[in-house]
């Protein structure tokens, strides 16, 4: 405890870091305030309490802004959708591949295209959102209400983008990721209070057991996020003037979960398709009715089997496009490095690819298990809001953002020659923003 208090003092003793923390809190407060500002023309007292089904998952990520029919109803999600589209374009379209290789200037252009693409995406999604609002809550339904709401929701999303960029520039952590995490965390107090109330005094022991299980699940996600397989690299001896430099041995850290949260996001988006398609023919086919029921219930074994399989496939896919063994091997060869016992060039590329394939399998299986764990928790009697924190997108995002933020704070402390936040002096977190690649 004394070490923790001393670390907090050190953090606020650094003027730049202190200013960034206060800036971050200020921008987060603005975002949370906007989440409760209801769209003009909507009677907040007639809105449905909470969202169900697939909209419940979205509402959790948005911190209740979706069910509140607020001006930030879609939050930063359209921007994330645009980011995913641009990532796929950098794989398939040579022009975007060229931009990605141009360094900082190329990244700025890609970010600009992402912002532009966000506008039509949020306009299209706002139409669907307006359709989900309870008809009794709309005071004067019609074209004017629809058009004005589309404009306001689009402006709200663009403002959330601006807040995210301000947090990144003048705050601490990645702004887009921080906004998503705050939305998720804002639901946690209500979920845990609701779970405690549901269990009551008679179920106090069960509630404590649930908290213990949640603790170990969080620890497992942290391990999965940080786990790496180190490939040893040897650098040949070099001659510097009249002195001979000894060879150095380093490591290439290959992450067990190099794909981050992206496989879950892709798989979750595809899991909406069967239920939507089945709803079109639900009156004409018994099979469609069965599929609609099974894939609308995320606790069914059919849903979770398909969901887990998709996560496995997308983990391998996203890892393949995120990590390029050929480029790693070429960089090693140019810098005079080699893997002991492996020839430079093609053999090194094949070796790295083999290692990556082997470590991706346990990482993908663990990610799939974490993704379906909320459904398992629900089957064991955990309430629906609280079960969402036992895994899935929510938990992985929270862990990743917290590790990223701790990493930045750690860097500030070490630069000012203060003791780190951990005894080891290292906090290994995610190195890529969620919005662009997790």
TrEMBL record:
GO biological process, one term: protein targeting
Major location (coarse): membrane
Keyword Membrane: yes
Keywords on record: Cell membrane, Membrane, Protein transport, Translocation, Transmembrane, Transmembrane helix, Transport
Entry keyword annotation includes Transmembrane helix: yes
Compartments (UniProt record): Cell membrane; Membrane
Transmembrane segments: 21-39, 71-96, 116-135, 141-164, 176-198, 204-224, 258-281, 301-319, 359-382, 388-406
Highest taxon above the source species: Bacteria
InterPro entries (alphabetical): SecY, SecY/SEC61-alpha, SecY_CS, SecY_dom_sf
Family: Belongs to the SecY/SEC61-alpha family.
Assembly notes: Component of the Sec protein translocase complex. Heterotrimer consisting of SecY, SecE and SecG subunits. The heterotrimers can form oligomers, although 1 heterotrimer is thought to be able to translocate proteins. Interacts with the ribosome. Interacts with SecDF, and other proteins may be involved. Interacts with SecA.
Function: The central subunit of the protein translocation channel SecYEG. Consists of two halves formed by TMs 1-5 and 6-10. These two domains form a lateral gate at the front which open onto the bilayer between TMs 2 and 7, and are clamped together by SecE at the back. The channel is closed by both a pore ring composed of hydrophobic SecY resides and a short helix (helix 2A) on the extracellular side of the membrane which forms a plug. The plug probably moves laterally to allow the channel to open. The ring and the pore may move independently.
UniProt cross-references to HAMAP family, sorted A to Z: SecY
Listed name of the protein: Protein translocase subunit SecY
Organism encoding this protein: Hymenobacter lutimineralis
């Amino acid at each position: 405890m004394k070490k923790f208090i001393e670390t907090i003092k050190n953090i606020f003793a650094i003027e730049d870091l202190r200013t960034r923390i206060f800036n971050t809190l200020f921008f987060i407060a603005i975002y949370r305030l906007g989440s409760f500002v209801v769209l003009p023309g909507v009677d907040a007292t007639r809105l449905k309490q909470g969202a169900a089904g697939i909209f419940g998952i979205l509402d959790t990520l948005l911190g209740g802004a979706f069910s509140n029919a607020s001006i930030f109803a879609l939050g930063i999600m359209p921007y994330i959708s645009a980011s995913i589209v641009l990532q796929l374009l950098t794989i398939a379209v040579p022009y975007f591949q060229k931009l990605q290789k141009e360094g900082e200037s190329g990244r700025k252009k890609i970010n600009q295209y992402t912002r532009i693409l966000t506008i039509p995406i949020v306009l299209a999604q706002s139409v669907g959102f307006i359709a989900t609002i309870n008809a009794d809550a709309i005071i004067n339904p019609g074209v004017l209400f629809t058009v004005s709401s589309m404009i306001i929701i689009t402006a709200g999303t663009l403002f959330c983008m601006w807040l995210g960029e301000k947090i990144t520039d003048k705050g601490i952590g990645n702004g887009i990721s921080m906004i998503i995490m705050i939305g998720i965390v804002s639901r946690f107090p209500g979920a845990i209070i609701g779970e405690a109330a549901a269990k009551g005094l008679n179920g106090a022991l069960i509630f404590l057991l649930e908290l213990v299980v949640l603790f170990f699940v969080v620890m497992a996600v942290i391990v999965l996020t940080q786990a790496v397989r180190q490939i040893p690299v040897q650098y040949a001896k070099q001659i510097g003037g009249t002195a001979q430099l000894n060879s150095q041995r380093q490591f290439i850290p290959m992450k067990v979960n190099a794909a981050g949260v992206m496989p879950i996001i892709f798989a979750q988006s595809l899991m909406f398709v069967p239920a939507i398609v089945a709803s079109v023919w639900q009156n004409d086919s018994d099979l469609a009715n069965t599929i609609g029921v099974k894939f609308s219930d995320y606790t069914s074994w059919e849903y979770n089997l398909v969901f887990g399989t998709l996560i496995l496939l997308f983990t391998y896919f996203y890892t393949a496009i995120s990590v390029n063994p050929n480029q790693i091997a070429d960089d090693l060869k140019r810098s005079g490095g080699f893997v002991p016992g492996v020839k430079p060039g093609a053999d090194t590329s094949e070796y790295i690819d083999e290692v990556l394939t082997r470590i991706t399998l346990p990482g993908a299986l663990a990610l799939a298990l974490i993704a379906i764990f909320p459904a398992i928790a629900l089957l064991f009697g955990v309430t629906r809001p609280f079960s969402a924190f036992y895994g899935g997108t929510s938990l992985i995002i929270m862990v990743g953002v917290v590790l990223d933020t701790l990493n930045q704070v750690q860097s500030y402390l070490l630069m000012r020659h203060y003791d780190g936040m951990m005894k080891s002096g290292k906090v290994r977190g995610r190195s890529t923003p969620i919005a662009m690649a997790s």
